[in-house]
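Appendix B. Extra example for self-study. Work through it before the problem class; the solution is given directly after the inputs so you can check yourself.
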Amino acid sequence: MENVSISIEKGEFVILTGPSGCGKTTFCRCLNGLIPNFYSGNLEGGLEVNGLNIIGKSTAELATQIGFVFQNPENQLFSLSVERDVAFGLENLAVPREEAIERTQWAMKATGVYDLRDKAPYELSGGQQQRAAIAGVLAMRPSILVLDEPTSFLDPRSAEEIIAVIAKLNHDLGLTTVLVEHRLDIVSRHATRIIVMDKGRIALDGPPAEVYGDTARLIGIGLPRVTMLFHLLKLDGFPVTMNPTTVEEAADSLRRITTK
Amino acid sequence: MIIVEHATFHYPMGTDVLHDVSLKIGDGEFIAIMGENGAGKTTLVKMFNGLLKPNSGKVLVDSVDTNDKSVAQLSRDVGLIFQNPDHQLFAETVAQELGFSLRNFGFDEDVIKRRVTKVLTALDLERYESSSPFVLSGGERKRVALAAILVWDPKHVVMDEPTIGQDYLQKDRLRQFIIQLVSQGKTVIVVTHDVEFVAECKPRIVLLSKGKVIADGPATKILTDEKLVAQSSLVMPQISVLMRELKEFDFPHDIIDAYAAREFITTRFKGAIKAAQTMKK
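Solution. Structure tokens for the complete assembly:
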């Protein structure tokens, strides 16, 4: 990462994307203190979360502010039941029993794993596992959720289901969301902002429809296929004027053009 | 040629992960194995190099029953690249990782060097030759794992979820690389959830659900079959959804990627383009 400056407001839904090796994961690791606490290297500059300087803070301290969800849910779940797994973080924080139970149940309901609470994580499907992992960080009541490619091990149906849960948490709780994703097809409709990193720097930053207009710099990122189609049509002289981010937008626009 | 005949597999004490699977994969074919999480995809491909043997039925690789050979012998012909590169990588540098198998096979050092360089270039990894695989990004480690298998030139190449963590350019590179392997007569078998990648490659799809083969056929047919797609927890390619949304245009159902859609739309609406151009003038 080189000379990166970003400011993310409360409640934003940010997609962080860019070519493999561009610094996305490094950026996320700075947010929860894994850099510099766990990974060695040279960190310069400042990092503030909710007005507090977080450099030098322990990852444990930051866990109550920032919830972190990894690519592979199997790396994040370890208890013999979903409920115990979700409660684990709270037990570590010595949250009083009554409150811990209440928060655990709330988190499991919010992510739709309440009915699975007595199952062992290995008995769950990939999508259910990832929802349980999200419940575990949600129980800590963070104000920010950082998810590093949370859908990449999941089949497309489960991936859509996870994205829907994340979008709902962002919408209902105002949870600030930073989502690292390559599959822009399924996430674009929810994002308020897309940040594209390239070679450790911020290459593009703005609302999806705006960012998707900068074709020259988007070569490395997998645009939603409807957006890609519109770029191709534009090259052929087709009178398209917008960058659709969803199938519905693309369909409306094509209808308007062709029935003129 | 890989032939699976009525293969059934279960882990000790477990229920069937694969149930009566029969399949024939010809040399030089490009196949995507798709299906929901837990459908049995990885279990199936682990039988191709003998890591797992069927409890009943059999698996034949180039006419040899996998029960009669060791994994070490079978690996020479069937290269299996795992989903998680960290299950595979161990050496101190990328070059050592790639040279390891070749040294075991007893190749000369100059041959090893030539092959390693060739594969590193093909997968855009030259600059990491002396890096530790463990400092690379997830996507890069996956490419190193792929390179470490391709370097010994197996006849059949099996990749478990090769597109995870790869950006669009890398996927496109992978697609071209697969086409190249297939044109050399190699069999390429890809286990994947990546519907858009498959829509752009258009391989033959073997669709698994709950341990059984529920469909086998061209990508254009299977990815646009609403029932099959739902049954196996897939989604249709975004372009297919768009084509269906625009019912009134009666788009052919075998259009599943942006390039095919572009061709069709620009031909169909030549008039609109001309009108727009005259208006500009």
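Self-check: Chain A touches chain B through 47 residues (CB under 8 Å). If your reasoning did not lead you there, revisit section 3.
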